[in-house]
Design goal:
The chain is an alpha/beta fold. The protein contains eleven helices and twelve strands.
């Protein structure tokens, strides 16, 4: 178990930000932490990283209480923040080579640290910019460098905060491939926060939804979609008129539709609920008080 959180609570003055948060993450798992602004995501991540002390509860990251983590423990973590605004005069390769040297003393036979600098640059797609000053990089190139800085020490656990902010579609696809390689080939556990629900659906093995300081859902994107919104929407055109029908059995409905109307059906579309639909439903239920404890426990 890479992350093990039990009854995590956080209070600022008289305001409770986290109310008994529980979740786990295993080796090689990609977990997305979703939630509206003010839900407690940043506080939770800062506690896991050892930058903030919780008010109560038990937290273990790589078997250690983050509040007591030493340098050896920190060498096993990687952090990619939303943005960096320093190192402008360094060249890309020089900076990564320099930072990598700090991890060399923590290398083990099972996990050689750091990443080879040139291999790392290839991994994040910055070969053509290896000798360019960081201040001259574009936004997308700089974001790739942020990722390279976060993984230079070959972490066992990587925190990603809005990782593809500013990426164009091609760069975003390349980054998604990189995340899968890190989790599959390096056995890296990845905890990411994002407001891009389509990205979370593509990347995450498991989704955590945090709202009001509580985990209100925990499961794969497919599990959450099935549990919250079982109906699919079938759309079709017949005799120039557009029709829409909601059904729990899209396959059966389409079969019956063609059995009744062998001709004249066109523009057939089956739309199943997306993670965005599920997420919005969960948060709206919670905020309106419709989700009771039994529903949350079932999710």
């Amino acid at each position: 178990m890479v992350i093990d959180v039990r009854d995590l609570r956080m209070r600022y003055g008289t305001v409770d930000v986290l109310h008994g948060v529980d979740f786990t993450a295993e080796r090689g798992e990609v977990v997305a932490l979703l939630g509206p602004n003010g839900a407690g995501k940043t506080t939770t991540i800062e506690i896991l990283e050892g930058f903030r002390m919780p008010s109560a509860g038990q937290v273990r990251v790589l078997g250690v209480d983050p509040a007591k983590g030493d340098e050896l423990w920190r060498a096993k973590l990687g952090v990619v923040l939303q943005s960096w605004r320093d190192h402008a005069r360094w060249k890309v390769r020089e900076l990564l080579d320099h930072l990598g040297r700090y991890y060399a003393p923590y290398s083990t036979p099972d996990r050689v640290r750091p990443f080879d600098t040139d291999a790392l640059i290839r991994t994040v797609g910055l070969e053509e910019h290896a000798h360019k000053k960081i201040g001259k990089l574009s936004g997308g190139q700089r974001r790739r460098l942020d990722v390279a800085i976060g993984i230079v020490g070959k972490p066992e656990l990587l925190f990603l905060d809005e990782p593809t902010a500013g990426f164009d579609p091609h760069a975003r696809r390349d980054f998604h491939d990189l995340v899968h390689r890190l989790s599959d080939l390096e056995g890296m556990t990845i905890l990411l926060t994002t407001h891009d629900l389509a990205e979370a659906e593509k990347l995450a093995d498991r989704i955590l939804v945090l709202a009001g300081g509580r985990i209100i859902a925990d499961g794969s994107p497919d599990q959450l979609s099935r549990q919250v919104a079982g109906q699919a929407e079938v759309r079709w055109t017949q005799a120039g008129q557009r029709h829409v029908h909601a059904t729990d059995d899209a396959t059966g409905f389409v079969r019956d539709l063609f059995a009744q109307h062998s001709r004249g059906i066109s523009e057939l579309e089956v739309r199943r609920s997306t993670l965005e639909d599920t997420y919005l439903t969960l948060v709206q239920r919670f905020e309106s008080g419709q989700a009771n404890e039994e529903e949350v426990a079932a999710l």
